[in-house]
Specification:
228 residues; Rossmann fold; Arc Repressor Mutant, subunit A; 2 domains; 6-stranded parallel beta sheet; 11 helices
């Protein structure tokens, strides 16, 4: 019987001791082949270009290009490469920003070695994996807590402006938004202008990027899984 092909993995974290411990843990697993390490998002993108792994394990907060932007670049250039986020950040903005960028898994640092290994093998098979507590937050987001979340992410906006921003981020034009919210197009244009001003962005595309980074404007909810 042929031996299964190991899952090819690269890791990225700007803390050398954490990176050392993580690499030691996964290198000891026969089903995983560690190809390399990076200490920043830019190094990670370059490493992925050079090695084309099956799975990337990355932190979010790193100098220069952060993990979320690196994930977006990797997902765009190598959609078959699964990104597993392993981070200390448990706030909703970080979580949904990473998901929006294309991450297939999200674990918090502190997850035990077995959970991390199972998550790596699962995302390599195409599954979505979320650690303890993370999956429930995703369910909550799509089953009732969405308005509370948007208020937390963009507290400077009024309720109506947040509604308009989310519809803009979902790809709707002003006349469609006006019809959905029973407003005039002029009122919608005024709300859009106010959103641009309050978010300190120059145009509609930049506002959409901010909203989507925060997880807004997604037409379909993901299918949450759980490590282990």
């Amino acid at each position: 019987m042929e031996e299964p092909v190991p899952v090819r993995v690269v890791i990225a974290d700007d803390h050398p001791m954490f990176r050392f411990g993580l690499s030691a843990a996964i290198s000891a697993v026969a089903q995983i082949d560690l190809l390399g390490e990076a200490s920043s998002g830019a190094e990670l993108v370059e490493l992925v270009e050079r090695t084309v792994p099956d799975v990337v394990i990355t932190d979010l907060a790193m100098p220069g290009t952060d993990g979320t932007h690196a994930t977006r670049q990797i997902a765009a250039r190598h959609p078959h490469v699964a990104v597993l986020v392993l981070t200390m950040h448990e706030d909703d903005e970080a979580l949904f920003g990473a998901m929006r960028a294309g991450a297939r898994g999200y674990l918090l640092k502190g997850a035990d070695r077995d959970d991390i290994i199972r998550a790596v093998l699962s995302v390599a098979r195409g599954d979505a994996v979320y650690g303890t507590g993370v999956a429930q937050r995703i369910v909550d987001f799509f089953t009732g807590a969405h308005k509370d979340y948007t208020a937390t992410v963009f507290p400077e906006l009024t309720c109506r402006e947040r509604e308009v921003l989310e519809l803009v981020a979902a790809g709707h034009r002003n006349h469609e938004i006006a019809r959905r919210l029973v407003l005039s197009e002029k009122t919608v244009r005024n709300h859009v202008a106010s959103v641009l001003f309050k978010l300190q962005v120059s145009d509609r595309a930049a506002a959409v990027a901010r909203a989507r980074d925060a997880g807004l404007g997604q037409p379909h909810s993901p299918s949450p899984g759980r490590a282990g």
